[in-house]
Specification:
about 425 residues; 2 domains; about 45% helix
């Protein structure tokens, strides 16, 4: 399947040496990565930062880390008087949740973290209005947009809110610098200092800083003409190799769906599985909404379908189609479906044309099961293993069958 992808002995040596150098001091032994929670925004990054910032945190350093953050990162003058309250997942009137909120007698700071999640419509606009409401005209408002690289928010998230009202920070620079100061201030507590250092190393790994294996490989290749040429040949073969993995996934998923439901799923976004797999890695973004679908039932006079869709990551769920075969919003059926099956865990779950949408079975898996074919995540790479691929498809189809069963129950009521 991947016979077009080759790696010369010279390139293998570069990668092997880089891996050894990158782990010279045990940098690859990172507890967050080992436990596979390294990209989890809510349960890893938000929780860890909240614990460090909280004056009553288990670090036992009172306001020390919080004041360092306010002063060295945000440039605010932290008062030594009055109560500081640090909240996590603060609910807004629009039923959203601000990741972290810091409130003092004269300032309120809201922090929105982004690792992998996409911006949501009017998200920062809603957050700012919530902070404004809580400030009551008596406190300075600071809304922070924290991403890996410090990029700005989308116009969709701002929804008319001025860019000047948002402070853009990066994990790579701002948070990492603050963590280094925290480590230096924690030397009297070695266990605490080491825990913060582990998190700082996680940030370095996620942002490609600090001598990672990728950095070392890039350095070696950029100084060796012949190896660079060999790497270019490998690079040329990668899209074809990735497409081969994607095609195998679609083929086996289609077979599993047909065996489960007795109906052959149709392909959309292209003429065939081979076509959508090959075209996915072309430059056109129009080739990024593809997948399989099959009819389920008729509910309230509307046709309900099971969709398995691919944009960046594979996601699946229930949608309503009109007579032209186009997925359309159905607010009444969405509400009815949610009462029966709850909410999905995919970003697209909030979109009006999905009744419910998942990345994976939430009972049986975690975020490591998200198959991202755009950046070829670890889950996508794992599909090269026949056993892993078949187990994942089996789990996925089993969850899809449970969704279909509940949809049919609604149809029969």
């Amino acid at each position: 399947m991947l016979n077009d992808l080759f790696m010369t002995d010279a390139l293998m040596e570069v990668v092997s040496n880089a891996r050894e150098k990158a782990n010279r001091h045990g940098e690859r032994f990172n507890i967050f990565s080992i436990l596979r929670v390294h990209r989890n925004e809510a349960d890893t990054h938000s929780r860890f930062l909240h614990e460090l910032l909280k004056p009553q945190g288990r670090h036992g350093e009172g306001r020390a880390f919080l004041q360092l953050f306010l002063e060295s990162v945000l440039g605010l003058q932290a008062s030594y008087e009055g109560r500081y309250r640090v909240s996590r997942e603060l609910a807004t009137e629009e039923k959203r949740r601000v990741d972290i909120v810091i409130e003092s007698p004269n300032t309120i700071v809201g922090i929105e973290l982004k690792i992998d999640a996409l911006d949501q419509k009017a998200q920062l606009c809603d957050y700012y209005h919530e902070l404004e409401r809580r400030a009551g005209g008596e406190k300075q408002i600071v809304l922070v947009y924290l991403t890996l690289d410090g990029k700005g928010p989308s116009a969709m998230s701002l929804n008319g809110l001025g860019k000047e009202k948002v402070v853009c920070l990066s994990f790579a620079e701002d948070v990492s610098r603050w963590l280094q100061i925290c480590i230096e201030k924690s030397q009297h507590k070695p266990a605490l200092a080491h825990a913060i250092q582990q998190y700082q190393q996680l940030i370095s790994n996620l942002t490609g800083r600090g001598g990672t294996m990728n950095d070392l490989v890039a350095g070696e290749l950029s100084s060796d003409l012949e190896r660079f040429k060999e790497a270019l040949e490998v690079e040329k073969s990668l899209p074809k190799a990735k497409a081969a993995v994607l095609q195998l996934f679609w083929q086996e998923l289609r077979e599993a769906l047909e065996a489960q439901f007795g109906v052959t799923p149709s392909v959309y976004g292209g003429k065939s599985i081979a076509a959508i797999s090959k075209d996915y890695y072309s430059k056109s973004r129009d080739n990024k909404r593809v997948g399989l679908k099959l009819p389920i039932c008729c509910l309230e006079g509307k046709n309900v379908w099971l969709y398995v869709n691919l944009y960046h990551a594979v996601h699946y769920g229930l949608r309503v189609e009109n007579e032209s075969g186009i997925a359309v919003p159905s607010p009444d059926l969405k509400e009815m479906t949610r009462k029966e099956v709850g909410s999905g865990n995919a970003v697209a779950d909030i979109e009006p044309d999905w009744l419910v949408c998942y990345y994976y079975n939430p009972v049986a898996g975690d975020e490591e099961k998200i198959i991202n074919f755009n950046n070829f995540s670890s889950a996508a790479i794992g599909l090269l293993d026949d056993e892993v691929r078949r187990a994942l498809i089996t789990d996925m189809v089993a969850h899809q069958a449970a969704l279909v069963e509940k949809a049919k129950e609604l149809c029969s009521q």
